[in-house]
Amino acid sequence: MAEVFRHQDGLASSMGDVLGILEKWRHSPPPDDLDGAVAELEAAFRFLKGAEGSMCASVRLGLAMVLGNLHRDAGNTEQALQAYDRGAQESVDLSENPARNEMANLHTNRAIALLGVMDAARALEDLEKAIRLRESLPLDEEPVFRWGFAAGWINRGDALRMLSRHDEAVASYQRGLQELEPLEPGEAVKWRRAVAWNNRGLALRELAREEEAMASFAKSIDELEGGEEPRAVIARSAAMLHRGDDPQQVLAIVSPLERQSAEAAEVSLKARHGLARRLCDKLGGSEGDWIADATDLVEEGLELERAWETAGVESMRPVACDLFRLGLRVYRICQPQFLAEFVLESLDPEVSDGAPVDDPHFQAAAVEEVGRALRESLERGVSGERGEKELAIGKSLRAADERLAALITSRA
């Protein structure tokens, strides 16, 4: 983690200090002492407060973007958006290429934050502004301008795909890949191309163009063959999973990174989902370890998603909800005595931090399965050897049903 350097009395005392703070945090990850980093950036803002001129406005724009990036990467989306909005209000001279590029950077970074909270419509607006700002820049003279221009098109594809505008998304990814072609094929360019090929494949799959999608996934994997950087491992693993490779193999590759990277966590979650579904093809068959293996995968995946929810990442919620439904079904059919515990562990915030109790899809799935389990318990009856066990199951399910009702009502 980056070390926080504090200026005397927490103040920036010169323009040199301000520029040093800006460059220091421009490419740094969130430090352990995020408050200290924020204090440095705010000190730089204070030094420039009321200062006129294009240069001062451009520096404030940069400070706002850096502050937004630190908050975004730390999972503080609301604070990140406030910082980006602060920078977008600066009156910079957009006839100057560096200022034009910096404003485009701000719009792109704000869009990435918006995509993280599934606000694709607003993200698309930002990305199209970034593209318009950069299209008149000397792309052939400055590789960094072309890199940003390509990133705008690729992220625009992500926004369009999230909005189910898949034909447009494919075209946007293609344009981004085209813009990357003139750049030297270093690790960063290979990674960016791999991400674009992978996401293009997902858009093609939504259009039922499966052969083209599989070719796109293969290109993504080829781009990163042998890459050992974490982001290369994550991107290659995602493409492998989407291509249909063994999810057990993918999980083994990417799970060591799942607590450090939201992208890795999403791939891990999808791999667990695929493995659990494969195990559940045996549902209704003979008893065996598959039940324990499937429920372990479900619970590990949901715990992982909750951990990222507490860090402000909501993009894994749809996959987590599918995994939750799968777990509900396995417990209801195979181990109804544990269903109530599973439901409350997954949805009660007093039991688990980050529990998505406000999500209507989670709520509906839980209410439906608990109700069905109660009816099935009544149908089995309480006579014979299973009588005491059925009474205990019914009692736990009724308690879970009442707790669910209270949680849902309190948030209505």
From TrEMBL:
<dbReference type="InterPro" id="IPR011990">
    <property type="entry name" value="TPR-like_helical_dom_sf"/>
</dbReference>
<protein>
    <recommendedName>
        <fullName>Tetratricopeptide repeat protein</fullName>
    </recommendedName>
</protein>
<keyword id="KW-0677">Repeat</keyword>
<dbReference type="Pfam" id="PF13181">
    <property type="entry name" value="TPR_8"/>
</dbReference>
<keyword id="KW-0802">TPR repeat</keyword>
<dbReference type="InterPro" id="IPR019734">
    <property type="entry name" value="TPR_rpt"/>
</dbReference>
